[in-house]
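Repro:
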Amino acid sequence: VARPVTLGTVNVTEHRRTFRGSPSYCFNTRHVRSWSESPQGVTVETNPRYSGGHRHYVIEVASSCGELVHSPQVRFHSGFNTGVICGHPGDRLEVIPTVDPILVAISERGPLPEPPINRTLSRCAILAVYPAAP
């Protein structure tokens, strides 16, 4: 009969560290100037003065973000509430729903024939962030 083996004692010490990202692989949401879809994912343009000298970053998202094609606006949410997007758990891209221009045109002429479709906020998890190749 085999006897269980006892391993040595493990000591754990606390290190006070905060989640900080390198500006090479993170960007501050306050300094985003524009965004666009790219074959790699989503590309954002930032102010290079505040982002480690990089003007463009590529963001890989977990899903296809299908609503992204139809939305002129997005917002970034930091999982650690730091305002910095690095691909940490909880970082996400939020697609802001737009108003259907046909419904706006109809409503300007009178009451809507039926209630407008409730468009919900789409959230796409961010997996990775890295500087775009020049």
